[in-house]
Design goal:
347 residues, alpha/beta, Rossmann fold, 2 domains, 6-stranded parallel sheet, 11 helices, 39% helix
Length: 347
């Protein structure tokens, strides 16, 4: 009993010393620090031109396409020339793979990231977390609804400006082809695809054709998908409803080529020298069609597109073009025009 009593006293003494220390009163439990939630839009990880000692990672959706390989090679060369460590990885078209790679970049000590997402929506949470941890993130080609919570900078194409360039090409052709045309005399139709935010913006640009006083905008045929059979059906509908049409403004190169192909069936109803289709974007097949329009074999006279000066992606990422960013931290590539004469001269 005496040993049990002494053990109990000893235990109480140890507990008392732990609580009181050197005779001081126990401190009150401190209140936890309040958690301050950071607004991702207010984060600024932009290096503003600094490259020394930094580590750049490039995350592409795939490296199976030559474009992405060339883009990675270009950016890697630029980063190395600037004294940076650099790595490039492919997600192989898998968003889960890409998210895992992005998370691994943090543990690798990456300071700067150029990402072209496999899935824009799925990657948002990861990008916000990386930005909160201090990583400078550049989004290539994806604007995330122009919400800079998800990036420090972005390079993209101004879709409305591309649509407006398409219209500028049409206006130039109308002025040359119908110099003495009366107001509302040039019969015009739009074939648009306003199915997402970017395409809605482009369609807004196409509709500026109505500002030309010579133009009588007869109709806008709105496609629901990039479906060539739908575009061709619209041509048939157009030729029934508006057989006097003279100008067709198209949303995409693929749509312009489908429209042009279907219009060949109506050549005997058209004044082929005074008929035109105008396109957005550019590829080799479209270029060939444009050149053939010089002999009126095709009706596609010109296109408006953006000039992807890919060397700018690295420069914008590293903060070398901050004064050219929009309020939403987007750098828009320049918009350019190619006429049939331009393409023929370059060949």
């Amino acid at each position: 009993m005496k040993k049990l009593f002494l053990l109990l006293i000893s235990t109480l003494m140890v507990l008392s010393l732990a609580a009181c220390g050197s005779g001081e009163k126990p401190a009150d439990n401190p209140e936890p620090e309040p958690v301050v939630e950071v607004d991702p839009k207010e984060i600024d990880n932009n290096p503003h031109g600094k490259t020394e000692g930094r580590y750049l990672a490039i995350s592409m959706p795939t490296l199976a396409a030559p474009f992405y390989v060339q883009l990675c090679d270009l950016i890697e060369d630029q980063a190395k020339a600037a004294g940076m460590q650099v790595t490039c990885e492919s997600a192989d078209g898998n968003i889960s793979t890409q998210i895992t790679q992005l998370e691994n970049f943090k543990t690798m000590g990456v300071t700067d990231l150029i990402v072209c997402p496999v899935d824009e929506e799925a990657v948002k949470e990861t990008l916000v977390a990386l930005r909160k941890d201090g990583m400078n993130i550049h989004s290539f080609a994806f604007e995330f609804g122009r919400d800079c919570s998800y990036y420090d900078s972005c390079t993209s194409a101004n879709q409305k400006a591309i649509g407006e360039q398409n219209v500028a090409n049409a206006n130039d052709w109308i002025a040359k082809t119908f110099p003495d045309a009366a107001d509302k005399s040039v019969k015009t139709v739009i074939v648009s695809l306003p199915n997402n935010e970017a395409n809605i913006a482009r369609a807004e640009g196409l509709r500026t054709i109505a500002d030309n006083p010579k133009v009588d905008l007869l109709a806008e045929y709105e496609m629901t998908a990039e479906d060539m059979s739908q575009a061709q059906n619209f041509v048939d509908q157009m030729m029934i409803e508006h057989p006097d049409v003279q100008v067709v403004i198209c949303h995409f190169a693929s749509i312009a080529m489908a429209v042009d192909e279907q219009l060949q069936a109506y050549r005997n109803q058209l004044d082929v020298e005074h008929f035109a289709v105008f396109s957005c974007d550019y590829d080799d097949t479209l270029a060939s069609k444009m050149v053939s329009s010089l002999q009126n074999e095709s009706f596609i006279r010109a296109t408006g597109t953006y000039n992807p000066e890919l060397n700018l992606i690295f420069e914008v990422t590293m903060g070398q073009h901050d004064s050219e960013l929009t309020a939403e931290k987007i750098f828009f590539f320049p918009v350019v025009s190619f006429t049939a004469e331009d393409v023929a001269a370059a060949q």
